[in-house]
Recover the amino acids of this structure.
């Protein structure tokens, strides 16, 4: 489970949800992938970049 509070850009993608709620990893990765155009890559923390890079569904569309 992923805590969105620990990842600023994921938290921003969850603007219409309760960010205090843990979400499954596959849901977090799907959110990054579907909404990558809205992610401010300059705001990604090192930890958040690692989370994205190590995602099982990491694709070419989500690259730095």
């Amino acid at each position: 489970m992923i805590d969105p509070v620990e990842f600023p850009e994921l938290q921003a993608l969850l603007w219409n949800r309760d960010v205090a709620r843990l979400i499954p990893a596959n849901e977090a990765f799907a959110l990054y992938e579907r909404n990558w155009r809205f992610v401010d890559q300059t705001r990604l923390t090192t930890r958040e970049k690692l989370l994205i890079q190590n995602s099982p569904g990491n694709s070419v569309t989500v690259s730095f």
